[in-house]
Design a protein that fits this description.
Helices cover 57% and strands 17% of the residues. An 8-stranded antiparallel beta barrel has the order 1-5-4-3-2-6-7-8. The longest helix is centred in the last third of the chain and has 39 residues.
Length: 535
Amino acid sequence: MADTKREIERKYEATPGTRLPDLAKVPGVSDVVGRGVVELDAVYYDTADLRLAADGITLRRRVGGADEGWHLKFPVATGIRDEIRAPLEDTLPRALAGLIRSRTRDAAVTPVVRLRSSRDVSHLVDEPGGPLAEVSVDTVSAERLTDGGGTASWTEIEVELADDGDPALLDAVDKRLRKAGVEPSASASKLARALAETEPGAPEPAAAADAVAAPDDTAGKAPKAAEAAKAVRDRGARLKEKHAGEYVLAYLREQRDAIVALDPAVRRDLPDAVHQMRVATRRMRSAFKTFRKIIDRDVTDPFGDELKWLAGELGVARDQEVLAERLRARIDAVPKELRLGPVRGRLRIWANAHRAGARRSSIAVLDSKRYLELLDALDTLLDDPPLLKDARSAPRDALPEAVIRDYKRLAGRVEHALDLPAGHDRDLALHDARKAAKRARYAGEATAPALGKPARKFAKRMKAVQTLLGDHQDSVVARDTLRDLAVQAHAAGESAFTWGLAFGHEQALAAQRERELPAVWEKASRPGLRVRLAA
């Protein structure tokens, strides 16, 4: 059984025989307690082409220490990683193998580096003797386990915050260490350093040290996952003056990367992971349609079908999650004196039963051959994309047309829905309009790096339409479920009054959203913004 620990730490350069400054003088630290020396022996695993290392992920089997076993680490931010642990076994535990499958696919995971460390451990404690942080001086020997690899050795200092500790303590320790002349490590992890220094043809340690001190020093560089948000913000600058096709491909690759990166988060059942992964599939699928004059739909349509399948399968879990939250909020809003019967208990049983089934379904999809083949196919597609003539056009010549085309599609659907009387047919038409609003929003977001503020403003207005229509559709779905729960309660001899009351509240909310739509649409459909978009 695997468990997870949030690891918050900082690493520093050291030399053999390094003596730590008196860390008891750090504010908040009462004492420094020596814990002796621990011998650690870890073998790190990866694919032959180091796919895990490329994404800042480490997988190791370590002997020695209180936490010996298998450890899988995912970067969260600079100096922060989630470590998933599993018991010491001869082979990679199945739970960890699943978490790396979106990266490794069918490639074998084999030993690449062995690290043996002699760790001199001290604990920083507060006045009552509670742990604040662990400080260790590690003397490390690294050996490359693949053909042609070399060896390396170094000494480093590692400061790891105790569970639930205050990160401000690390700043205080950092200040004390720097004052004593101790500098931060240039490597994000021991593995990263080992791979660099044991690679065939790597420079001698002295030369490597000189490289670290060069102007392009990578000290403090965030892991790939932590840089993702910044990469999105910088995309416009990096693609400035490029062709329209390069913007579209960059956007598509971001969605592909998001699907791969979110796979383990979905398996770990992290908050919002299913939703974010589903959004990435939808954004990619929408982009294939929106930019059909830039990338050939005859080629991409089958990919769109597979992405629709994946989003639909993941939707079982996501839709259940959203619906359960909505129903809980609706029941909680009913005054206590009007909650007749075991309504919360019945809702909890319903939610747990559906959630368990939805989660099993999501994991089965991620373990399926069809899903892994889709990931491989997306890689192939984006490595050699079927670009059309418009891909070579300037962004302002090709991209606005694609966005406005999606807007016109949305406008037709909204106008059709508003012409219908309230009822089932209008509900269906509004749901179709919601999907069109989402596609138009994604088009605006995708083109924002090239088209700037007008595209961002357009996307914001389309999101307002999408949000209103989404709330309406969620109400339609909630009413169906409330009706079912009322029938079940009645059949069990319970009062159905509270379920009927909640149903009425949802019905009134949907009617309110329909009354609000004309004003929201009038603001979103003002022509001035589209004129600026195409300018």
